[in-house]
Write a structure and sequence with these properties.
10 helices, 20% strand, 42% helix, 4-stranded antiparallel sheet, 283 residues, 6-stranded parallel sheet, alpha/beta
Length: 283
Amino acid sequence: MRRAHLVDDEQLRQQVARALDEDIGDGDLTAALIPADARSEVNVLCREAAVICGRDWFDEAFRQLDADIRVEWRVEDGDRVAADSQICLLRGNTRAILSGERTALNFLQTLSGTASRAWHYARQVADLDVRLLDTRKTLPGLRLAQKYAVRCGGCDNHRFGLHDAILIKENHIMAAGSISAAVETARRLSPDVLIEVEVETLAELDEALRVETPRILLDNFSLAEMREAVSRTAGRAQLEASGGMTRERLREVAETGVDFISIGALTKDVLAIDLSMRFVTDA
């Protein structure tokens, strides 16, 4: 998995710098209790089964505090680990390790939580011809990082923001006057980007098909309506199902024949993975 394809080095550096500043501010008062030249060896453990993601953010947190800290990883991003697995070993200045501990773990536990949630969804439909997509419902400031984590977990990315694709939703349609008018204007203004229309009824689906919309989002359709939409579309457009996509409902939706399922819960309902940092010895 190539992190740099989504988050470049400068973006990552800035994310970590902001997080460290938020936590440390003018200085770590508690770490100052430790001798300045003390060195330690520290294990990071994963307390539950998980898909690991966020190594580069973890490394960068310590790099910015002390470039001499060494991190020896036992796993790669995208690896699934069992409970109580050792994730990595750190060696270096004790003060710097203590100061960076929370920031580094925050990135690792959040992105691993995102990747793990994506993995659980992906395995539900691994044998079916459907792609699971994330949404823009991401943690502020961590969108690209979370979208990278979604890929590590085996799902795919929808648009990255308002700038790289057009998704014509209910309010856009009302403001433009109709689906047809909105699609026509979108084609004129942005001919080289993906155009997708959200529809709430089969009648709206028919209108979107008449104007040859390349992708159509079925918003909160019932399973019967999804099957009917697939039949009516007959391959003329890609169909994406969205709305209330729980893991329990996911397979039924996939079996209707839609091409994509978008799931806000991949990123917005993420639960951090339980990680811990334990000092082993003075190095």
